[in-house]
């Protein structure tokens, strides 16, 4: 469980075993609370057209579609997209396998959501490209929600790298992490085990200040930024475990 991962670690990370673990470990009520937050904070009208990127196995896309919205989910993981498609019968949702920067560019979405801490997957230059793609995807006046657990204000106060073990059903995960000071990033190393199967994988979350994120989004046409520390609407502050950012595309 050593070595420095590549900048494109996410291309190979999200195979069946990690995906199945994350599908199991998030309670359904968490997804409901997150989509309640999206609908309320963005004021989504009925039948809004929503882009979910990266959508993973589709938990947010499917919940949005169940509420009557027209949804497009984009993700690079073939396994996750396949699972999402199998779960979408009868719903107005399309799942596309593509890099998160290769979203539809038709300027027609009422809202775009980037949930599950994936906004930190990319290095700064690639993140600018991703933000620009989101700006081109959403209509003027449309909304954005970004979910980020790796904002500097969240991560650095009291940072401690302690091993932890997580279990769900027959899957056990040993997780360790370290902060790479030179790269301003968290390296999270996982050992997944299930029925004799063992998989080592490393995830990378780049750490940016809130100001950097806000400036990056402003450069791609987003304004009216609000910062929250959770789905209950509490303000984000130093040591908040999570940043939920909302914004509007104004140009």
- Structural class determined from secondary elements: alpha/beta
Number of domains: 2
Low-confidence stretches: none
Termini separation? 45 Å
Alpha-carbon Rg, integer: 17 Å
Order of helices and strands: HHHEHEHEEHEHEEEEHEE
InterPro entries: Methyltransf_25, SAM-dependent_MTases_sf
GO molecular function: methyltransferase activity
Keywords: Methyltransferase, S-adenosyl-L-methionine, Transferase
Organism: Saccharothrix yanglingensis
Describe the overall structure.
The protein has two domains: 10-148 and 207-249, Rossmann fold, CATH 3.40.50; 155-204, N-terminal domain of TfIIb. The chain contains eight helices and eleven strands. It has helices at residues 10-13, 16-25, 28-42, 59-66, 78-86, 124-137, 152-155, 210-218; strands at 49-52, 70-75, 93-97, 109-114, 138-148, 164-168, 171-180, 185-194, 197-206, 222-228, 243-249. A seven-stranded mixed sheet has the order 3-2-1-4-5-11-10, sandwiched between helices. A four-stranded antiparallel sheet has the order 6-7-8-9, with helices on one face. It is globular and about 50 Å long. Keywords: Methyltransferase, S-adenosyl-L-methionine, Transferase. One of its GO terms (molecular function) is methyltransferase activity.
Detail the topology: elements first, then pairings.
Blueprint: H1 10-13, H2 16-25, H3 28-42, E1 49-52, H4 59-66, E2 70-75, H5 78-86, E3 93-97, E4 109-114, H6 124-137, E5 138-148, H7 152-155, E6 164-168, E7 171-180, E8 185-194, E9 197-206, H8 210-218, E10 222-228, E11 243-249
Parallel strand pairs: 1-2, 1-4, 2-3, 4-5
Antiparallel strand pairs: 5-11, 6-7, 7-8, 8-9, 10-11
Keywords: Methyltransferase, S-adenosyl-L-methionine, Transferase
Domain Methyltransferase: 50-142
InterPro entries: Methyltransf_25, SAM-dependent_MTases_sf
